[in-house]
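hey
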């Protein structure tokens, strides 16, 4: 029985956009190209939506495919069809998945047994209200409606290249991690020139008054590495130093000589490819 629905990608890092399209295409069995626009409530992120037609259960399959990219904030709807209720599935990083049944008009439907269980277990009016809010997905809906606000972080004249590397790390896969570890091991065995190169990049940041910019980039790198779930042992084994040196080089790339920039960037390019360099 065919049905239809809509996929809303509310926020997505630019580097992950092709992966989101491939995930959707893989479920629908046809090439999907989304029209991406800036997400004004979350600088640096993009948003898109697309209607779909498929068999019953396609909505859940789409949500499962997109869930493979945990930095996305998305919503999938599936319309009711003969013999089947509709669905609404929301995902918010840090909060997880909310999945509920919806009626023909899009309202969330709460079953009789759910309500009976709620009445039986709620000890106070506050408990009841809290449980009902959770049952209705209030936290997820609020997160979709109130995307994080704030001015974008200034990463200097090479903002987009630094951001591209961070986005690439946030979407890291196991094969990428293996290459990063291998590249870090190679860099550690051939460490000559690395320390002077880092010193040169740090001195360039100081002379150009980009110390705050460099610090902001390093803090974003910490978050990206955490999002990628790179094991602590691998970070300590050389991956962190390699990535940190590359980010420092990118912040002052216009001020470094070719050999210094190459010394700090080459190991990461060897592991992740050159696409993020632009």
């Amino acid at each position: 029985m065919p049905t239809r629905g809509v996929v809303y990608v509310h926020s997505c890092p630019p580097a992950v956009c092709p992966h989101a399209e491939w995930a959707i295409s893989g479920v629908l069995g046809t090439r999907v190209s989304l029209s991406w626009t800036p997400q004004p409530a979350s600088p640096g992120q993009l948003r898109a939506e697309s209607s779909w037609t498929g068999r019953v259960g396609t909505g859940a399959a789409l949500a499962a495919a997109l869930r493979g990219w945990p930095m996305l904030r998305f919503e999938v709807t599936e319309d009711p069809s003969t013999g089947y209720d509709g669905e609404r599935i929301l995902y918010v990083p840090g909060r997880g998945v909310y999945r509920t049944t919806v009626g023909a008009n899009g309202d969330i439907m709460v079953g009789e047994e759910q309500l009976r269980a709620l009445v039986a277990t709620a000890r106070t009016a506050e408990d009841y209200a809290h449980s009902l809010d959770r049952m209705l997905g209030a936290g997820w809906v609020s997160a979709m409606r109130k995307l994080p606000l704030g001015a974008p972080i200034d990463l200097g004249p090479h903002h987009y290249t630094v951001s591209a590397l961070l986005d690439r790390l946030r979407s890291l896969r196991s094969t990428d991690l293996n290459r990063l570890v291998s590249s870090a091991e190679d860099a550690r065995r051939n460490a000559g020139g690395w320390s002077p190169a880092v010193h040169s990049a740090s001195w360039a940041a100081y002379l150009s008054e980009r110390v705050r910019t460099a610090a902001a980039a390093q803090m974003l790198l910490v978050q990206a590495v955490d999002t990628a779930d790179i094991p602590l042992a691998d970070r300590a084994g050389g991956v962190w130093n390699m990535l940190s040196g590359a980010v420092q080089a990118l912040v002052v790339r216009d001020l470094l000589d070719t050999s210094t920039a190459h010394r700090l960037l080459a190991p990461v390019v060897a592991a992740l490819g050159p696409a993020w360099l632009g």
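The chain has two domains: 2-145, 156-277. Confidence is low (pLDDT under 50) at residues 147-152.
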